[in-house]
Design a protein that fits this description.
With 174 residues, this protein is mainly α. The chain contains six helices and no strands. The chain is elongated, with a radius of gyration of 28 Å. It starts with 5 loop residues before the first helix and ends in a 43-residue tail after the last helix.
């Protein structure tokens, strides 16, 4: 079993705290939008509102030491795309609970809390690996450089090619 680093545990706890605030933003959005656009549409819209706020707080607090390898808009889109698995786990659980009992339709916060727990582990892992990752030495490698021809550079006169075993020696004709 791999050993958990202190940094990873701290990040997970911070991610969980941000997730609790996300549950608050999610619930507030559902209850605010429900009278205007209905429960189903409000539930979907609320996810994107809460996920966007969570991304910002995670960027500024939870994963601030990881560095920001991408432009903030690209990182936000990566966060939403990467956490799509968490979205399906989260909202799948929420809609299942809505259909299981009228208690959950009357009190959406109960279904939203269960959905948040369902998606949290997947979202943390994906966010840590794909969105808020530190640049490792592998991604700091330089790409190939193109250098212009340098006529002053010495060229070996009697070099032997490894591919063809052809000698490049100069012979005087004469």
């Amino acid at each position: 079993m791999p050993q958990l680093s202190r940094e990873k545990v701290t990040q997970f706890l911070k991610f969980g705290i941000v997730g609790l605030f996300g549950l608050f933003w999610d619930t507030t959005a559902v209850y605010s939008l429900r009278p205007l656009i209905g429960l189903t549409t409000a539930t979907i819209a609320a996810y994107f509102i809460a996920a966007s706020i969570n991304w910002l707080v995670n960027r500024l607090w939870t994963f601030r030491k990881a560095g920001n390898q991408h432009h903030f808009v690209i990182q936000w889109l990566r966060f939403l795309a990467g956490n799509s698995l968490g979205f399906f786990l989260n909202r799948g659980c929420v809609f299942m609970m809505f259909h299981l009992s009228p208690v959950f339709k009357a009190n959406p916060v109960l279904a939203l809390a269960a959905g948040a727990v369902a998606g949290m582990l997947a979202n943390f892992h994906i966010s840590r690996k794909l969105v808020f990752h530190s640049c490792r030495p592998a991604c700091q490698q330089k790409s190939a450089e193109i250098t212009p021809f340098q006529p002053q550079r010495a060229v070996a006169q009697n070099a032997v090619s490894r591919r063809t075993d052809v000698s490049n020696s100069r012979r005087k004709a004469g």
